[in-house]
Amino acid sequence: MWRIIILALVSITAVSGWSHGAKDPVNRREAISDGFLFGGGIVSALSRPQNAIASPSSVPTTPSSIILSEWDPLAYKNFPLEGQSVFPPPFLPPITNKATYRYSLGRDTWALEQLLAFANVTATIRTNVVKLSSGGLWVCGPLWPTKEYCKLLDELGEVTEVVLPVNALEHKAAMKQFVQRYQKAKVWVAPGQYGPFGECGAIKAGMSADQIKKVVHDASKTMGYHISGVLPIGSLSKDSAESVMPKNLRPSWINDGTFGVETLYVELPENAGPVSESAFHHNASNTLFVTDAVVCVPSSTDFPIQPIFETYFDATVLSDPTFWPRTVLQAVFLPLRAESDSLGTQYYPGYEALANRLVRAPILRAFADARSPHEVRSWVNNIVRNSKFDRIITAHFASPINASPSLFADAFEHLNENATSESLSSALPPITCQDWSTLDSLNSFIGDNKLGAPVVYDYKAGCRGV
After folding, report:
1. Torsion sign (Cα): 80, 30, 446, 366
2. Alpha carbon distance 444, 41 (integer Å)
3. CA distance 147 to 169
4. Which helix H or strand E contains 209, and what residues bound it?
5. Residue 32 gets which letter from DSSP?
6. Residues contacting residue 189 through CB under 8 Å, at least 6 positions apart
7. Contacts for 64-69 with beta carbons within 8 Å, 24 or more apart?
8. If DSSP codes are grouped into helix, strand and coil, which group holds residue 333?
9. What does the pLDDT read at residue 14?
10. I need a labelling partner for 278 at 20 to 30 A (CA). Which of 152, 288, 394, 409 fits?
């Protein structure tokens, strides 16, 4: 799916002054105020409002004390003098100053975070770590193994299990270098990998042991590093494992009941490649680990901007009160549209609609859910049915998030075929219909140029009129 996004962005975005390192002298936020280009015309909804600030609006948000009570963006550890570069270098900025911040998430879990930048999109990206009962580390979504990153990880214990949970480019780009650094660890990957960072097939229901072994064997050759196993499509747990695949081909953390796994896999012929994501329920910590399935955007009125942004942006950029709302909207592909409150202060309705809520990112609603609603709906239902958790840890924005299975399901209410206007209004973020304009244009671009499968579902269900 990211191949489609990149193709679309390259074709429709006019961006100058793209930063290639920390604290580039060109103000990237000013550079992107030129907006997006659609068929040669600049969309005015993305123009920068004057004197806009992230002020509260009439849009209700979930109190941060409830949903993000365990998240503290200032409680980090880092070792900047250890070294923040790798070779070959990352394929996306920051290139040479790839800082890593480590956070303790409680219950023997941690996060190692780096920054990811592409054109006008900047976001944190997270490796999630669990200490197993054996004392070894289960590492999900490895990032670039700089000396700083490795020291922060090695302090926690020995890396014994490594998981690539999705096939999105930004999450698998660092895998080869990471696995070369931790060669003794067993490596498990989500199915359907493709593109410049390796390819592998999928393990489907009914496959024989020999067929499964061949998928894994071929993956070790095409991914460029040893693969211990490919996670099967659908559900995998201690109770169901025997009917899915032989014990010797399964992760030990499945066989001993440490984790249960639900894997989404969608292969649409018109797309550049499959879409896959594995969600992991860790029984001991009562935690659901996901990568891109949902996010929680922290409100800048309740939390400071994460200090890692200081390693890439100068103080002038960060002091701009529009920095965080604009960063969020660009990351989820909502337009930079401003309105004024009763006092005449401008704010961003799209940002206010998302803040302090567990949500399905609009870009995934528009790209993944719109093209494969049945598969995503089944995946969500399986997670809710088979998992018990009271918090969610993601790969982007804030974590841990205080959330139950029912709250997780609410984030996908737009896929509920029996949804009512009341249930949509209650469960989904109050994004206005006009704020889907950027994603509508992207989908039109993809459709007109035959870059992906057609939209088959109303991903804007429950949007608010103006």
Report:
1. positive
2. 14
3. 23
4. helix 209-222
5. G
6. 163, 164, 175, 200, 219, 223, 227, 229, 230, 231
7. 64/298, 64/299, 64/302, 64/303, 64/356, 66/402, 67/296, 67/356, 67/357, 67/358, 67/401, 67/402, 67/403, 68/296, 68/298, 68/302, 68/303, 68/356, 68/398, 68/401, 68/402, 69/402
8. coil
9. 33
10. 152
- pLDDT of 243: 85
Q: CA-CA distance, 436 to 290, in Å (whole number)? A: 25
Phi and psi dihedrals of 401, rounded to 5?
A: -115, 125
What's the pLDDT tens digit per position in 430-465? 999 999 999 999 999 999 998 899 999 999 999 998
User: Residue 289 in 3-state DSSP?
Assistant: strand
Q: How far apart are CA 446 and CA 453, in angstroms?
A: 8
pLDDT at 64 (0 to 100): 59
Identity of the amino acid at 394: T
The residues with which 230 forms a beta bridge, in sequence order, are: 189
pLDDT for the residue 30 = 36
Q: What are phi and psi of 287, to 5 degrees?
A: -125, 140
Q: What one-character DSSP code corresponds to residue 109?
A: E
Residue type, 328: V
End-to-end CA distance of the chain: 31
Cβ burial of 252 (10 Å; 0-12, 13-18, 19+) is: middle
Rounded Cα gap, residues 316 and 24, in angstroms? 12
Cis ω for the linkage preceding 165 (within 30 of 0): no
C-alpha span between 68 and 215 (Å, rounded): 40
Q: How far apart are CA 45 and CA 36, in angstroms?
A: 10
User: Residue 9: its pLDDT value, please?
Assistant: 53
Residues of the chain with pLDDT under 70: 1-65, 466
- Report the distance separating Cα 390 and Cα 383, nearest Å: 13
Angle between helices 2-12 and 437-448 (to 10 degrees): 100
User: How many angstroms separate the CA atoms of 298 and 294, rounded?
Assistant: 13
Between the alpha carbon of residue 391 and those of residues 266, 285, 322, 347, the distances in Å are: 26, 9, 30, 30
Which residue reads 């920068």 in tokens? Answer: 48
Q: What angle do CA 350, 419, 452 make, to 5 degrees?
A: 60
